[in-house]
Each structure stands twice: as C-alpha cells, then as structure tokens.
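Figure 6 in text form: structure in, sequence out.
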C-alpha cells in the first residue's frame, strides 16, 4: 500500500470532516458542505489556471468556502431556518454557479485546460502536512480551551452557554465559518492538488461522506480522520483493481467508483444507531427574553 498516495487521496475528506466536527459540536448540521467543497474546487482551479499561482488558488478556494458558510450561517443561525433545507439550497446554489462559471470560463468540457505547470507544487504538499497537524490541534482546541468548552456546551445545552455570558449565535457562526473554510480548502486541494482538473459536480458526494465520517468517528477528530483514511483506501482501490478480474469475473468499473459510498452506508447501519450525537444538534437556538 502506498501510504503517501492514500494520505493525499484522503486529505480532502479529512479536511471537510474535521470542519464538520467543529460545526456539529456547536449544534449545527452543515448539509451544505458538499456545495462549499465544490465552490472551493472550481474557484481554486480557475485561479490556478488564470493566475498560475497555487498559493492564490488555495486562498481563493478557502475564501469561497467561507463565503458560502457565512450565507448558510445567516439563515440557519441568525434567522433560525431549517438547517437541512438551507444546506440543500447551498448545494444547489454551488452546483449552479460552478456549472455556469465552468462554461463561461472554459467553454465545453473538451476545451478544459490541464495544469502541467502545477504538477508538483510545494503549497499543495504543505496542505497534506498541515492536515495531519490539524488533527491534534483541533482536539486540543475543542477539549482543552475555554472556547472549546463553550463550543461543546452549545451543542449540548445552549441555554447554559448564554447564562455563562457567551453568545450561542456567535459561537455557532464561528464554527460554521471554520467548517466552510476547511471545506473550501478541501475542494481547492481536490481540483488543484489531486485531480489537477475540474469537472461539474467533481466533489461527487464527498461532502456527504464527510458528514457521515463525523458519525463514524464519534465526533472525535482523530477517529474521524481514521475513518476518512478507511474511505480513502476504498477510493484508492479503483486505481489498483479497476480492470482486473476478481475470481475470474470482470468487475464493472462503476462498482469500484461506488464502493466508498457502499462502505459508508454499511458503517452507518452498523455504528450509526449507537452513536450519541450532541444533544442540540440540528436545533435552532432562540435567545430567551
């Protein structure tokens, strides 16, 4: 097994899932994670092609993910709209905007330029190393800081947070913003660092997989990252086993493409029912008085 390749392939999932851990710890379910990743992927690729700058590509991808997160936070936290509905709208918005931008910037898919000049870039490699460091840092922030204590309390008993002098809305909006920034980085890394190309809907459900990973990892950054590596391994199988017969039977390539999602569903069935999610997850908070 090529562990370096596995880590590179898993990095977008790890980044998005870590951001979702923060959001869910605060009590917000970010269904729009897929759209934030997709916007980051398109924005990062567009800047990499037009500006030939990997630093700027990653920064713009992060920024676009953050913008969508702020839009989502306004509706779900400020206006207390249904989190699933808002997240679904964000996903459709991102799908439409990236599809339109794709055609305006590059024309038809056959005209899409490749990125040979960005085949090996330091900033992309640095993202992988930063992701590994982010796992323990995030654990420390959540479990060993005053902000982390308030974050966890927002997801369990938000009234106690307000009574302690913190703002539930500010903490939840900050948590959503962190999730959006990491999702934007994950998307930009996917298009610029992994695929070095862009296709409409190229995130292909990775945002939803990241949400499932949080449940697999029991809202713990390290276990969530391990779960992402497991799904990353199933994704890598399509490269090593695609086209090879299994027990003398030629397996369709579509089966290997679907394998990560099948594994995700299987694990959800096996462990999802026994997972204790934050008590206030998905519930809008209205300040009393």
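Output sequence:
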């Amino acid at each position: 097994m090529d562990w370096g390749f596995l880590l590179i392939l898993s990095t977008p999932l790890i980044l998005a899932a870590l951001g979702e851990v923060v959001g869910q710890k605060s009590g917000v379910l970010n269904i729009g994670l897929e759209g934030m990743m997709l916007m980051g992927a398109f924005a990062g690729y567009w800047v990499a092609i037009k500006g030939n700058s990997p630093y700027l590509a990653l920064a713009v991808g992060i920024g676009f993910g953050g913008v969508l997160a702020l839009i989502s936070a306004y509706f779900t936290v400020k206006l207390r709209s249904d989190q699933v509905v808002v997240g679904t709208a964000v996903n459709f918005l991102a799908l439409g905007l990236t599809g339109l931008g794709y055609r305006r910037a590059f024309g038809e898919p056959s005209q899409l330029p490749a990125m040979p000049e960005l085949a090996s870039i330091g900033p992309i490699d640095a993202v992988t190393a930063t992701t590994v460091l982010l796992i323990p840092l995030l654990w420390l922030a959540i479990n060993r800081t005053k902000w982390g204590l308030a974050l966890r309390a927002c997801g369990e008993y938000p009234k106690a947070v307000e009574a302690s002098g913190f703002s539930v809305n500010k903490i939840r909006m900050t948590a959503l913003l962190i999730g959006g920034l990491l999702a934007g980085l994950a998307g930009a890394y996917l298009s610029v660092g992994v695929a070095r190309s862009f296709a409409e809907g190229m995130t292909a459900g990775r945002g939803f997989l990241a949400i499932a990973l949080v449940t697999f990892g029991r809202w713990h950054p390290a276990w969530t990252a391990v779960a992402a590596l497991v799904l990353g391994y199933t994704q890598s199988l399509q490269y090593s086993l695609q086209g090879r017969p299994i027990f003398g039977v030629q397996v369709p390539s579509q089966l290997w493409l679907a394998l990560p999602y099948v594994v995700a569903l299987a694990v959800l069935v096996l462990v999802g029912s026994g997972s204790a999610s934050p008590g206030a997850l998905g519930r809008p908070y209205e300040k009393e008085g």
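Caption detail: Residues 67 and 241 are 39 Å apart (CA to CA).
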